[in-house]
Amino acid sequence: MRYAGVTACFRARPPSSGQALHRPLGVSLMSLRISFDNTYTRLPERFYARLDPTPVPEPRLVRLNAELAQFLGLDPQELVSPEGVAVLAGNQVPEGAEPIALAYAGHQFGQFVPQLGDGRAILLGEVVARDGLRRDVQLKGSGQTPFSRLGDGRAALGPVLREYIVSEAMAALGVPTTRSLAAVTTGEPVYRQAALPGAVLTRVALSHIRVGTFQYFTARGDVEAVRLLADYAVARHYPEAARAEHPYYAMLEGVIARQAELVAQWLLIGFIHGVMNTDNTSIAGETIDYGPCAFMDAYDPATVFSSIDHFGRYAYGNQPHIAQWNLARLAETLLPLLAEDRDAALGLAREALASFGPRFETAWFRGLRRKIGLATEREGDTALAEDLLQRMAQNAADFTLTFRRLGDAAAGPDGDAAVRSLFTDPSAYDGWAANWRRRLAEEPGEPEAHRAAMQAVNPAVIPRNHIVEAALSAAVEHGDFGPFEALLDVLSRPYEERAGFERYTAPPRPEERVYQTFCGT
Ligand code: AMP
Ligand code: MG
User: Is the pTM of this model over 0.85?
Assistant: First the structure.
């Protein structure tokens, strides 16, 4: 398969677009305190470029994530002040920040691009959060950098809000993810297919080290940098690997384990990342770089939403395979660190990579068992779960609702009607349900407890694509942020069914269905 021509997802900046404004002078930042504690800037200069964000004409706060701010030890009141908004827009650099754009490479749709890098993002610095873990605070859409290639360095409001919504929904669903601290509009248009309002997202991540960061140095034959980066990643993300007999091997195993768990979690909630390039694969194991991502409505493993994924490389059901492919690219970069002898290094890399399959399957089947209410493990459980998925696929059953309503069916056969109605041929459910009930009867606990356990893992609401799109177009086309705010509220407690929220839990009507999502730029 070839993916020729699909290397980047942004358009060249039109010659008419404005020049960077000068930094506004004389704004006192005395009231804004961010306790930066930066470490990436202690790595050699070839790891990044130092530069300030490019100011924007009219910053306006769309949304601040006050809870996340507090978790990071930041004061929400300060962040919503004019000084705070100036920082979130990139118009002011707060004290202690050391703004940098990170260098990285990556395989995009299978093709290697030796230099990508933060083309429109700037890492302001790092803070240590309440959980004791370090977080990057990054502005995305903050202007051109030495890595911008032909891009304008900016982000459009729609994709910024999409990333905000979906990343926060993922966090509430319990999936490792980068977070969204704030969104601001810039008062400046960005030019895509049309002129769109520009925006900046403040993203928070365990780090921005990607598989592609390792590839960047390997492509340059810079083994010393690969080693420094690996040492840094071990210290920051895999401290237990530092104490292992072979720290680099232990780190590779750790990354593989986190990715296997992560992709299993995606599949268990029907999430499709859309652009699983190696530059979008986090070493820390978080979901990162929300572009044309989407949640599946009707279950079909071949589902693809991204308008640029012409061959279904990143289809829902292909994601474990691609994660493993991406991890093989990481393993390649670590070969010189794994052993002096190349064959020995290859053997170790293969051994580590072979652990992906079993780890993924363990996480996936453990999750599936819980989704159908089985706390214990018996022979035939995986076949039972797979049989359900097959029937769902054949009958276009809504992924989220089927599992959610199954919880009610576990409490008693009265619940069956609502599940079977989701199948084009309801008898496909009946056949499965008879087997399921027999198996469920072997589980300890009362039916009500089964329901409660199932509802704790089967969300009632996910960011359904048609609802997300409606919230984005209200904001972008009409400046109405009400639907965006309402959606964030609903998604903050995804395992709860709240009265009046039927609109958010229902699958799209045929005329509402979204078939394609567009690039996140
Ligand atoms: P993404 O598809 O967002 O993961 O981005 C892939 C690469 O393209 C990264 O190196 C980005 O920094 C770069 N990029 C995406 N959009 C832009 C843009 N508007 N201006 C400059 N670089 C961009
Ligand atoms: Mg990316």
Answer: yes
